[in-house]
Design a protein that fits this description.
about 425 residues, alpha+beta, C8orf32 fold, Serine Threonine Protein Phosphatase 5, Tetratricopeptide repeat, 3 domains, four-stranded antiparallel sheet, two-stranded parallel ribbon, elongated, disordered N terminus
Amino acid sequence: MKTSHRFWVFLLLALGSFAIPAIGAPGHSAEAERAALDTNLAEEILKASGITEEARRHAYEATLQSWLQQMQAALGARGSEYRKAKRLHLELHARILRRYDPTADGLDAVLERGEYNCLSASLLVGLMARAFGWEAQVVEIPSHVYVRLFIEQRRIEVESTSRDGFDLHPRLEARSDSGSEPGYLSNAGPVLTVPEVAAPDGVELEQAVGFLWHNRGRRALDRGEALVAARAFLEESRLEPPGSSRSESLGMYLARAFRLTYEAGGFEDAYRIAEIGVRIFPGETTARDRLLAAALKQVEVECDLGRLEQAEGRLEQAAAAVGNPADVGRLERGACPLIAAAAVRGQDWIRAARMARRFAIAETDPVEGDHLMRWVIRRAKEARDARNACTDPLLRWAGDGEALLEAPLRSGVEPGSSAVAATAD
C-alpha cells in the first residue's frame, strides 16, 4: 500500500515538472494570447489625429504594437485584473506619457514626442486597456475627458493625465476655465479628489474619436481654414449618436465657417461648407438657406463670366442637394432670371427660353413669370430684326413666340425638360 502511494506521489511530481515550464514559457501565457491591439480603432484615432499617409499610419501602428508588448511584459501573468490595470496606468506614465501639453490631443504627439493632454492620454489608455480585454469608455465633463474602466464588476474612474490618477471619483462641475461648450483642449488639472457623486455617462472609444475631430475642426477654424474645419465637423457628426448634445455647437461652428468664407467671396468653399451643413442637419432651415445663398452666388459668378452651361449646372447641382421642393422653387426663382439674362446677352435663345419657362413654373405670381418670358421673346425679336430675316435661323423661333409664351402657364411641364427646346424649334 505504501509502495502504491509513493508511486503516485512520484508520478504527480514528474508530471508537474513538465507542466511548469510549459505554463511559464514566454509567448504561451494566457495574457500573451489575449492581448491584441484593436487595429481598426487605432487607425481611426490616427486618422482623426491628422495622419493621412498610409505608410506613416502603419509605422505608428507598429509602434503601438511594440508598446503593447512592453506593457504586457511589465504586467506579467500574475495578479488580479484590477492590479494589472493599475500597473498599466503607471507604466504608461513611466515609459510613454512624458510631458503634458494642452494642445497635444492627437495620438501623433504621444507617438512622436511623448506629449499628451487629457484627450490623447485617455484614448491611449483606452486603446491599451481594450487590448488586454477590459471594457473602456471615455467620459466627458466640461473642457475635460477621462477614462472609465469596468474590471471585475467594478467601475474605475481614471484621470489619465496624472500618474496618481487611477481609481478616482472625478469632479463633475465645470471648472473655472471651461466655457459653455467643451473643447477638450486645456485641462490636465490636478488629481481629482472629491466625494463620489453621480457621474455622467461615458461613450465608447469609437465615439470618443469624435472629440479629436471636434478639436481639429475648432483649431482649423481659428486658423481661418473654414472648409477644413467643416470637413472635420462632418467626421465628428458621423460618430455622434442621434440627438447628441453637441449638435447645437456643431451648427454654431458650421455657421461661423460659412460666414467666414462667404464674406471673403469664397463662394465655392462656402457652398461646400453649406452642403456639409445640409448633410449633418438635413431638416434645418438655416442650413438649407446657406446652401441656397452660396448656390445663387455661384450662379451669378458663372453668368458674369459668360459660362452659361456651368451656371445651369450649378443650379441643377444645388437643386439636387437641397431636395426640399419649396427650397428648389426659391432657388429657381433666384437663379433662372440670372441665367436667362446672361443667355440673352450671349444670344443663347434656347437657354434663355428654357430658364424663362422654368422661372414661370416656379414663380407663384403668374404676372412675374409672364413678364420674364415676354422680355426674352422681345429681345429675341429685336435680335432677329437687326439681322437679315431671310437667312436668320431665329425666324421660326420668334414667329412661334406667342405659343412659347403661353406654354409654361398651361402645360405644367417640369423645369429642365426638353419641351422648351422643342417649342423653340
